[in-house]
Amino acid sequence: MADPIQWARYRWQRLISTEGGEGSSSSSSSNKCYQSSKTSGKHRIVIPCLGHFKEEYEKVSKLYMNNKIRTTKYTLLNFLPRNLFEQFHRVANLYFLFLVVLNWVPLVEAFQKEITMLPLIAVLTIIAVKDGLEDYSKYKMDKRINNLLTKVYSRKEKKYIDECWKNVNVGDFIRLSRNEIIPADMVLLYSSDPDGICYIETAGLDGETNLKQRQVVRGYSEQVSEIDPEKFSSRIECESPNNDLTRFRGFVEHSNKDRVGLSKENLLLRGCTVRNTEAVVGIVVYAGHETKAMLNNSGPHYKRSKLERKVNTDILWCVLLLILMCLTGAIGHGIWLSRYSEIPFFNIPEPDGKLISPTLAGFNMFWTMIILLQVLIPVSLYVSIEIVKLGQIYLIQNDIDFYHEKTDSTVQCRALNIAEDLGQIQYIFSDKTGTLTENKMVFRRCSIAGQEYCHEENAKRLESYQEVNSEDEDSADRQCGSSTHMSEWHGHNCSAVNEPLNRKSLHQLSGSYPAPGREDRAGDVPHSGHFAFSSPIETDVVPDTQLLEKFNQISSHSCQQSEEASSNLSLETMYITDFFLALAICNTVVVSVPNQPRKKVRRLSSLGRTPIKSLEEIRQMFQRFSVWRLSSSPLPSVKESSSESPSSFVSKLSIFRMKLASPALDGAVQGAAEPLNTDSPENSPVPQELDIVNAASPDEAALVHAARAYKCILQSRTPDQVTVDFAGLGSLTFQLLHILPFDSVRKRMSVVVRHPVSNSVVVYTKGADSVMMDLLRTASEEMEQKKIKERTQKHLDDYARRGLRTLCVAKKVLSDAEYAEWLNHHFLAETSIDNREVLLLESAIRLETELTLLGATGIEDRLQEGVPDTIQALRKAGIKIWMLTGDKRETAVNIAYACKLLEPDDRIFTLKSQSRDACALVMSKILEGIQKNTSAKKKPSQKLGNVFASPSTQAPGFSAGLVIDGRTLEHVLHDSLQNIFLELTEKCRAVVCCRATPLQKSVLVRLVRNKLKAMTLAVGDGANDVSMIQVADTGVGISGQEGMQAVMASDFAISQFRHLRKLLLVHGHWCYTRLTNMVLYFFYKNVAYVNLLFWYQFFCGFSGTSMTDYWILILFNLLFTSVPPIIYGVLDKDVPAEILMQLPQLYMMSQKSVAYLPSTFWMTLLDAFYQSLVCFFVPYFTYYGSDIDIFSFGNPINTAALFIILFHLLIECKSVVSTLFSEGILFYFVFTLAFGATFKTRNQPSNSYWIMEKHMTDPVFYLVCILTTCVALLPRCVSVL
């Protein structure tokens, strides 16, 4: 028979040519051409600048960008204007710019023009320098990247030449070697790998270090030599540039109008690195800023924190206060002028001789007061907040407790401006797998053909297992409850449905079948910890004795069985064989053997020298074996052997094995197909070198390792074929026709293969039981399948109750006609650009029907260290925790109990309904039940109160938990049911959402955030958690085993869930408390100081005069009192970390914003008014009636104000060293002494010359300063004590 790949290509070409050749299809062909030209604006046409494409290339290339990138924001010419333009987007900067301009108006001038500009210039300069340095570092990086060299084909020199990245254009041919970085997005046209595979590392994009496979476009992979760009006559049509890294749609159209579909598997992305491949050639489709990597480069995360929104509101209150004070000054100045019956001597007339009326003078004085009292608006507050946040982030990232030695990682703070939000979290939405659990999948149980295999020996191994170099971590796991599930299985006897045949002793079986590769682990194999999903606890699987005995009967003992005895084994053997074949090949796992060169394995290479006669016999036997009772549409070849009895299977299997083991065969073939000798390890089919399993998920790796334990070993995988060494039968090479990957809609994956012996098309499918059970055959005559389905469902429910992750395994056999019909639709879906995902989904659903159930698996995922303690602590802190998972209900509930999200005393309500009305009715009944229990429990405990009471509305003696599945979520998320659903969840201490899709997770987070106005935190570790992480107020990613997508999208990244405890309870509390106290302190000191000027206006006719020199007035807030609050905001610790960890209830203080309530803000302003009154009137009454000048009167007021403001902060501090505050006082005295000694005639008629020097020798000055400070701070000291 012809090669299946050739046959498939022939079918595709025939289908396309038929459409183009028939008259009835001519119109459709023209429609296709019209549609292509019509949608060319949406799509991108890529052609090389070679040959007959040259003229067309000149037109098309003008529309596309080159490969030069520029991530900088500024240039030398536009830096100053653009930076100023961006800075003046801030309202505070615009406000102070307005004051600077206002001070240049002579009628309202309050200060010297240069002094008014000083604060604004200082702030703008600091930010400009920071922005300039950041942009310059980007410029240097851009320059280095743009000047990197790569090999580009030159049409002039007819060869590949070195060219800078910036000179690469769309349509250029690029040649890359091993370890080179890909300069632009390119379609792979050639690979030196014999199977057309290119290995790339995508760490630059998503942080994942495991290698990914990309393959050459179909039709180019079989070329022997490297592609010649001059002979390339095809054109590429693909989608317009977008930032979706997981999707690429397009097709290659050859000169004969044949089309070949393109997918992400054919695309090499910019920034990735070529690994393990000597040479690749591709054509550029996206360059520069149109590449997917650049379109995803959105810069740092920016979210506005809740505190920042409050600060903006309070600044508006300060603006209103400023306007009120200025109105008071304007009205007072007008009244004061109107009291003079005669023209006062100081009222100088205008040049035309007219006098300014009191009303106009009061209006002018309003603007003068605005300039004088401008300090009331804290211009330095925004800069100080940014500095404090950077300091807090630095301390978090350098906390040694966040370091995880096993992964060599620590906390990452990716969002720099929401650290204080960590102290206000009210809801946590957590994923389960990889977040609460380790994501180390351990194969525990399986059910095949309705019979369960408990793997008791494997359970005993796991109970006593301690991973190498991690004894402490495993012991902590057991203390935290991760071994809770293990204890449930200890000593559990599995009641098999059918008794095992010819049972051997446990000693003989366990001695003959150690875990594969365990003996050879100490060889030249790299340490398994260097590879994902390859720890010994995952790879070492001890086979079940009963199932292993049946494998012995299949492989070695079957040749000694009589036909009568073997008849009982045929049906069960069929299921067992297909079950483990599905585990081995229904995945995307790639295996590689260290120190072994790659060779292309041809189809049926291991049977190459088998006599043709025996091969035909084997084909007939496998056709009977594969189709009997498994296919509703048997192939014609099966009818020829329909007279065979099932009992002949074992005897033919032994013939097959004897033929393969014949001495006449080649040595390599003989070694691969030699019968398994249980007493001789040398004859084991397991390679002497441990194969390295590269899996995309731990579930796939666990199933492959389980199949390996039963000598069903995945040997190699290429884009065209999969080779499996099955139980001593030799290497079976399956032609890999299609892979239908897993998605969240179908919740399953399938592989379509052509069987190496029967030559039939077989579909192997694995997926969630919630969808797989509905896809099984429902024919009335399939009584055996019904029994298997019922028994398997019972086993699945039992696995879920034990907290295991469950998967169903099924198969389907297709006839050639059925496959050709499906292939026609699938090919059209593959080659389409618009709605490609929808068409592929429909194609997969069309294929995955009428399946035959083979069995099910149960995989354990252990809890991470410290998860139960962390959840208990977070709940004591008043945080509600929701578990959002895609697992089934029983598994999710079991894990919820294990991690103490649900307690044994909790009353669990399950919300599951098929319609919206039924869902509303069920929720109403649950609410009634909770309210009855709440009212009953509250009566005897009404007198019991607690300051740190939980925000939940539950009674002290009653607690409820809510469990809801994905289908019901669709109903409750409807607008009409959202309010009652949220009311119900508020009365529950925990919510578990199972079978939830990524979209439902994000909708739930958004619903709670918007409707309840609650601070939310979402934590997850996988790509399916990205949407909810981005929606939440704070997103936390866990750098687990599922890549770095969640980390890349998060605001904070941690390595273990237990780190969330200290991140919130300690650093969250500190960050919020420090920042709120610092912000309140800024408002306090500005109001207190500016009021001194305001009180003085009552004694100077509201003339806008200051009793302090303008330089000292401006620098008071800018220099003298700016550093201590920043130090306080970064380093102060109101409560030690140990106490915060031991008493999680203290977190409620920051959670409820106790430190920054509206009442706290106004009390702070009242305190500032009181202290300013004391600070002004104590010196006033002291010097009342004396002849001191204005600056001699203002100097003790200014000095006392400095003491009061700094000592006020010292009282508030709990841990910062007091010597830091002495520097502000020292700097003030040094400056005023130098200023008074230098500026001899600074201001006229008053003069600040030698003022401080005189007061330093006056005892009254010291007495005034000390007395004023004590009286002003007395209430604050009393309140603290």
Automatic annotation (TrEMBL):
<keyword id="KW-0067">ATP-binding</keyword>
<dbReference type="InterPro" id="IPR036412">
    <property type="entry name" value="HAD-like_sf"/>
</dbReference>
<dbReference type="InterPro" id="IPR032631">
    <property type="entry name" value="P-type_ATPase_N"/>
</dbReference>
<keyword id="KW-0256">Endoplasmic reticulum</keyword>
<feature type="binding site">
    <location>
        <position position="766"/>
    </location>
    <ligand>
        <name>ATP</name>
    </ligand>
</feature>
<comment type="similarity">
    <text>Belongs to the cation transport ATPase (P-type) (TC 3.A.3) family. Type IV subfamily.</text>
</comment>
<feature type="binding site">
    <location>
        <position position="886"/>
    </location>
    <ligand>
        <name>ATP</name>
    </ligand>
</feature>
<feature type="domain" description="P-type ATPase C-terminal">
    <location>
        <begin position="1047"/>
        <end position="1278"/>
    </location>
</feature>
<dbReference type="InterPro" id="IPR044492">
    <property type="entry name" value="P_typ_ATPase_HD_dom"/>
</dbReference>
<dbReference type="InterPro" id="IPR008250">
    <property type="entry name" value="ATPase_P-typ_transduc_dom_A_sf"/>
</dbReference>
<feature type="transmembrane region" description="Helical">
    <location>
        <begin position="1154"/>
        <end position="1181"/>
    </location>
</feature>
<dbReference type="GO" id="GO:0016887">
    <property type="term" value="F:ATP hydrolysis activity"/>
</dbReference>
<dbReference type="Pfam" id="PF16212">
    <property type="entry name" value="PhoLip_ATPase_C"/>
</dbReference>
<dbReference type="GO" id="GO:0005886">
    <property type="term" value="C:plasma membrane"/>
</dbReference>
<dbReference type="GO" id="GO:0005789">
    <property type="term" value="C:endoplasmic reticulum membrane"/>
</dbReference>
<feature type="binding site">
    <location>
        <position position="1001"/>
    </location>
    <ligand>
        <name>ATP</name>
    </ligand>
</feature>
<feature type="binding site">
    <location>
        <position position="431"/>
    </location>
    <ligand>
        <name>ATP</name>
    </ligand>
</feature>
<feature type="region of interest" description="Disordered">
    <location>
        <begin position="464"/>
        <end position="484"/>
    </location>
</feature>
<dbReference type="GO" id="GO:0045332">
    <property type="term" value="P:phospholipid translocation"/>
</dbReference>
<feature type="transmembrane region" description="Helical">
    <location>
        <begin position="115"/>
        <end position="133"/>
    </location>
</feature>
<feature type="binding site">
    <location>
        <position position="805"/>
    </location>
    <ligand>
        <name>ATP</name>
    </ligand>
</feature>
<feature type="transmembrane region" description="Helical">
    <location>
        <begin position="1259"/>
        <end position="1278"/>
    </location>
</feature>
<feature type="transmembrane region" description="Helical">
    <location>
        <begin position="1079"/>
        <end position="1098"/>
    </location>
</feature>
<feature type="binding site">
    <location>
        <position position="995"/>
    </location>
    <ligand>
        <name>ATP</name>
    </ligand>
</feature>
<feature type="binding site">
    <location>
        <position position="432"/>
    </location>
    <ligand>
        <name>ATP</name>
    </ligand>
</feature>
<feature type="binding site">
    <location>
        <position position="1024"/>
    </location>
    <ligand>
        <name>ATP</name>
    </ligand>
</feature>
<dbReference type="InterPro" id="IPR018303">
    <property type="entry name" value="ATPase_P-typ_P_site"/>
</dbReference>
<keyword id="KW-0460">Magnesium</keyword>
<feature type="binding site">
    <location>
        <position position="742"/>
    </location>
    <ligand>
        <name>ATP</name>
    </ligand>
</feature>
<feature type="transmembrane region" description="Helical">
    <location>
        <begin position="365"/>
        <end position="385"/>
    </location>
</feature>
<keyword id="KW-0479">Metal-binding</keyword>
<feature type="domain" description="P-type ATPase N-terminal">
    <location>
        <begin position="55"/>
        <end position="116"/>
    </location>
</feature>
<feature type="binding site">
    <location>
        <position position="1025"/>
    </location>
    <ligand>
        <name>Mg(2+)</name>
    </ligand>
</feature>
<dbReference type="GO" id="GO:1990531">
    <property type="term" value="C:phospholipid-translocating ATPase complex"/>
</dbReference>
<feature type="transmembrane region" description="Helical">
    <location>
        <begin position="1193"/>
        <end position="1211"/>
    </location>
</feature>
<feature type="active site" description="4-aspartylphosphate intermediate">
    <location>
        <position position="431"/>
    </location>
</feature>
<dbReference type="GO" id="GO:0140351">
    <property type="term" value="F:glycosylceramide flippase activity"/>
</dbReference>
<feature type="binding site">
    <location>
        <position position="431"/>
    </location>
    <ligand>
        <name>Mg(2+)</name>
    </ligand>
</feature>
<dbReference type="GO" id="GO:0000287">
    <property type="term" value="F:magnesium ion binding"/>
</dbReference>
<feature type="binding site">
    <location>
        <position position="700"/>
    </location>
    <ligand>
        <name>ATP</name>
    </ligand>
</feature>
<dbReference type="GO" id="GO:0005524">
    <property type="term" value="F:ATP binding"/>
</dbReference>
<feature type="transmembrane region" description="Helical">
    <location>
        <begin position="315"/>
        <end position="336"/>
    </location>
</feature>
